[in-house]
Amino acid sequence: MSPNGRPLDAERLPCIVIPPTSAIWDHRAHGVRGGSVAAVLYRDRVRYAVVGDTGPRDLIGEASYATARALGIDPDPRDGGAHSGVTYIVFRDTRARPIEDHDDAVAKGEELARKFVGRTD
Question: Which pTM does this prediction carry?
Answer without folding.
Answer: 0.91
